[in-house]
Amino acid sequence: MAHILAVTNMKGGVGKSSTVVCLADTLAARGKGPVLVVDVDTQASSSHSLAGDECLTALIKDGLTIDRFLERRLIKGEMLPLSHFVRRQVSNTTVAGKGSLDVALVASSTNLRLSERDILHKLTQQNLSLTGIEERLTATLAAELAVLGKEFKYILFDCAPGISPLTTAAISCANLVIV
Questions:
Q1: CA distance 79 to 12
Q2: Which of 55, 96, 129, 152 has the lowest tally of Cβ within 10 angstroms?
Q3: What is the DSSP letter of 7?
């Protein structure tokens, strides 16, 4: 079972994404991997850092981002697993004698804020309260992480500044929260 960590803070620009990327690379370099980064920040800084512009652009174009997963699951009712959205071997960091690090990514995009708004709208139409929406998001992520936790030793969430339903879900899924 994976150790799930959420890196969060109410303020932006405090190094959440840098912490996640460095922690992912460090864990993988020390043989503590494989590591999965789930970027739930609309700025997609972890996604840019790990995947690079070209790869991230392709992931967004192909609809392989966390916002598309959530839209497909919570708005359209499609049961495509989160594992379908995982991009493996994204770290450019290499370690002598080990080669590339075993770091994977569920990328974010700048569309995440719009997707989150659409999800809130759709689920409130189903008479869910904010607490109910947070519970649905948490249950969705927890079920998918239980499956991915068999493959990855560490799952790291890079959270957006502030508290949104998605950040609340990430925190609820985490064994450890780093603020």
A1: 33
A2: 96
A3: E
In whole angstroms, how large is the CA radius of gyration of the chain?
15
Burial class (CB in 10 A: 0-12, 13-18, 19+), 166: buried
pLDDT in tens, 67-117: 999 999 999 999 999 999 999 999 877 776 666 789 999 999 999 999 999
Judge whether 111 and 123 are in contact, CB under 8 Å: no
Strands 3-7 and 35-40: unpaired
Cα–Cα dist 38/2, whole Å = 13
The reported pTM is 0.95
**Residue 11 contacts residue 179 (beta carbons within 8 Å):** no
Contact assessment for residue 90 and residue 54, using Cβ atoms and an 8 Å cutoff: no
**Residues 45/158, Cβ–Cβ less than 8 Å:** yes
